[in-house]
Amino acid sequence: MNVTLRQLRAFIAVARAGSVTEAALRLHITQSALSGLIKDLESNLGVQMLHRTTRKLQLSSAGEVFLPMAERILQDLGMALDAVSDLRELRTGTVRIAVPQVMACTVMPEIMAAFARKYPGIRVRLQDSMVESVLGRLINGDVDLAIGPERDAPANVVARTLFTLPFLAVLPPGHPLTKKQRVAWSDLVRYPVISLQGEYTQLLSAELYASPGRLEFSPTHEVAFLTTALSMVEHGLGVTTCLPYAGVLLQRQQLEFRPLVTPVLSRKFQVWLNKDRGLSPSAQEFLDFLLQHIEDHPAPEVRAFRKAR
After folding, report:
1. What is the pLDDT of residue 304?
2. 107: helix, coil or strand?
3. Per the CB 3.0–4.6 Å rule, which of 4, 149, 226, 298 could disulfide with 302?
4. Could you tell me how far CA 154 lies from the centroid of its own chain?
5. pLDDT tens digit sequence for 259-308
6. Phi, psi angles (nearest 5°) of residue 63
7. What is d(CA 19, CA 56) in angstroms, rounded to the nearest whole number?
8. Which long-range contacts (CB under 8 A, 24 or more apart) does 2-7 make?
């Protein structure tokens, strides 16, 4: 059975108009073309849909049963096409994104608010996550996009660079190192250092040991969250490190920061997407918006570092 949408539209038009002539005018086709569509529909269905007399057309019993169903099919199709059009024209949609916890409470709210002002119909669902689990959420299909520090990724994951930022020394007010415009790593490690557990400290230790000074990085404390480390710094338990995008947290807790040098170490953050699944129009627009926003609106601490450098 090969019923077409043109046949359905022709049947509905004739049934509602009660006339081939009037229905042909409404559809902007010839009467012969319209009659051919009705005959093809009846041939496909194997029943007569219309009774033809010299004076008018009437629905057969099969036609009376079929008419509301045919109208519902076209109505549902119209709604489906409208929904796709809304997605294409960015009037609606959902974007799911996994982001490390610190970035989720510093960088992302501003970007999400700016995006919502431009595209009020698109919902951005943020999953704040441990750094180690961000990429896994993308691979498992939980999100459309993921953000995190540069990592080895499967072949089907595409990475776009979001930013590359240096490490900062985070100090309590009045600390001796606040007298310096820049702080050498060799000076920082003379004080109790509070660092983050896992790859954060492991990578730092390896990079510092591989530097010309072959520095030993042995934190006094290792904690799971940067917010914990900052609170400990605030209470004089040591110093810590972070990247400039966390600057808003430093401001809230009135902590000092200085660029870390000798060596200058940095972290590249990336946006990941799964090329096997592709992106919806909404997700693609959010990705483009995110990259442009980061370029146009660096955080004050990032601008300060660039100026000092």
Report:
1. 44
2. coil
3. 298
4. 19
5. 999 999 999 999 999 988 888 889 999 999 999 998 887 654 444 444 44
6. -65, -40
7. 7
8. 2/44, 3/41, 3/44, 3/45, 4/40, 5/74, 5/77, 6/37, 7/37, 7/38, 7/40, 7/41, 7/44
Question: For residue range 61-83, what is the model confidence (pLDDT) as tens digits?
Answer: 998 999 999 988 888 887 777 77
Return the DSSP state at 3: -
Model pTM score:
0.71
CA distances from 41 to 1, 70, 183, 198 (A): 10, 12, 82, 68
Instruction: Tell me how far CA of residue 291 lies from CA of 266, 271, 287, in angstroms.
Output: 19, 9, 6
Say if CB 76 and CB 263 are below 8 A apart: no
CB 261 within 8 A of CB 183: yes
Query: Would you tell me the crossing angle of helices 31-45 and 20-27 to the nearest 10 degrees?
Result: 100
The alpha carbon torsion through 216, 229, 188, 206 (nearest 10 deg) reads 30
Give the SS3 label for residue 162. Answer: strand
d(CA 263, CA 58): 88
Can you list the pairs that 274-278 forms with residues at least 24 positions away whose Cβ atoms lie under 8 Å?
A: 274/138, 274/139, 274/141, 274/156, 274/157, 274/158, 275/156, 275/157, 275/158, 276/156, 277/141, 277/144
In three-state secondary structure terms, 145 is: strand
Is 123 buried (19+), middle (13-18) or exposed (0-12) by CB count in 10 A?
Answer: middle
